[in-house]
Amino acid sequence: MSIKRTFERLKDRGEGVLISYIMGGDPRPDLTPKIAKTLVEGGADIIELGIPFSDPVADGPTIQAANLRALRSGTTPIRVLEIADQIKDYYNIPIVILTYYNIIFRMSLENFFDKAKKSKVDGIIVPDLPVEEAQDYKLIADKYGIDTIFLASPSTSIVRLKKIIEYTSGFLYLVSLFGVTGARKKLKRLTIRLIEKAIPYTKGKIPLTVGFGISQPYQVKSIIEAGADGAIVGSAFVEMIQKSGHDEDKMINSIRNYTNELKRATILKGE
Asked: Which H helix or E strand runs over 106?
């Protein structure tokens, strides 16, 4: 199922979209498909898979540590794409890859997108690729029918936001705060103001999702009630994987239950 259709279907049901991020290969590659299946069983609507990178500038300590664990376990970009394909064998759910541009550059744009398409990847997020430098990237992504998902930050001007929306497909990733990724317990008023700022420009054009610092069901609920179409939760899942250590059963149960709580928070009142 495409990313666009997923947002449309859930909107018709009065639900926001829950996008769950995990690092591919953390704690080891053979366990990632099982974790992804658990997320889907818990209610995740889209799975976002990270490709580990040695210099993840947009990530906080939690995901930086996951990058290191995945790299130490021998995870490669090709292995993460294979994992995406494995997940698709179980569930018809959109898969989004998050990767830094250097990884794509080393593989070459054509080669990367060819392999991503064969692995049934639906969208790509490249946090260090500015929209102003993405023309060649966008052309090849469109050629392979893979969504190009750009980020907008609290400092993004209205002029630049319009340009980003013009180039984005799948959904717009609204970064909810200044700084790097990482779970926060409180939802800042800034996040709600950002949603209110973006909605006039995204409405009817592209689904609006919010990520960075989202970890609690009440935060997800507040984001959806403020008008966002989806919420992205990542560091909280990565922390669960880290803290569970070698107790896989505990990890799987914790992830399933937590995902279910987050998904219930996406259901709008009266539905």
From this structure: helix 101-107
Q: Domain of 187?
A: 3-264
Whether residue 59 lies in the annotated active site: yes
Contact 169, 134 (CB under 8 A): no
Selected catalytic residue, list 59, 82, 122, 147: 59
Give the pLDDT confidence of 15-69 residue by residue, as tens digits: 999 999 999 999 999 999 999 999 999 999 999 999 998 876 666 788 888 888 9
Q: How many domains does the chain have?
A: 1
- What do you get for the CA distance between the two ends of the chain, in Å? 23
In-domain check, residue 85 = yes
Q: What is the pLDDT of residues 54-107, one digit of tens each?
A: 876 666 788 888 888 999 999 999 999 999 999 999 999 999 999 999 999 999
Active site residue 82: no
* 164-176 confidence digits (pLDDT tens): 999 999 999 999 7
Task: Tell me, yes or no, whether 270 lies in a domain.
Answer: no
Please say whether the beta carbons of 223 and 214 come within 8 A. yes
Which candidate in 26, 48, 122, 229 is catalytic? 48
User: Is 92 domain-assigned?
Assistant: yes
Domain CATH code at residue 234: 3.20.20.70
H/E element holding 95? Answer: strand 95-98
